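Much of the work behind modern protein science is quiet bookkeeping, done one molecule at a time. The protein below has been through that process, and both of its lines are reproduced in full.


***
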Amino acid sequence: MYNINSMNVHREPPYRFAVSLAGISLVALGLLAVRVATSDSFRYGFMVWNLVLATVPLLLAWWLVTRVDRLGWLSWQQIILTLAWIVFLPNSFYLITDFVHLRVNYEADIFFDIGLLTSFVLAGLMYGYVSVYMVHQRLLKRMRERSTYLLLGLLFLAVSFAICLGRYTRWNTWDILLKPAGLLFDVSERVINPNAHLQTYATTAVMFLLLFGGYAIVYEAIRLIKSTK
């Protein structure tokens, strides 16, 4: 009986945390449902699909770390999973750019729409940060902490650049497979001719500082909480 209770105590925090993450999405979807019901407008209906894509990196990270814990990180399956996680990760943070759709309209109060979009953005940020944290913890078992921060910095820089490509040129994750030539052209054009794409670099820098800085705060806050127990 003691062992069973101990197992339940051990499993309860992850379960409750998973429920809280799901709750963020339910709040966002609930607010959207209220808006649709009261305004007969599907103005922000696209946010549902964006939210679905935002959950993919978290699921991939969970699958990856589960396999890494059992099988290590150097098999081709784990390498493919890692690449898939990296490729889909920008989708979690991409929702922050959906504030560009915020407009004063006669369908709903502007403050309600702000709250609606913020709920989706918070859900995306949480899914993204949790997935990065899960992978970060496995990296810490294999690398020095300073090296993991450098690696994650490069990751967030790539994520920020990918978000800019998605917002300005409308590239999607699956275009890596469906339209690789066009995607490679747009990326190389921005690398070869940076002066012609200053907006991309400026936006990438802002997104990097926001996202990486946000993760650093979350990570250090978790460390502080653990150290005070």
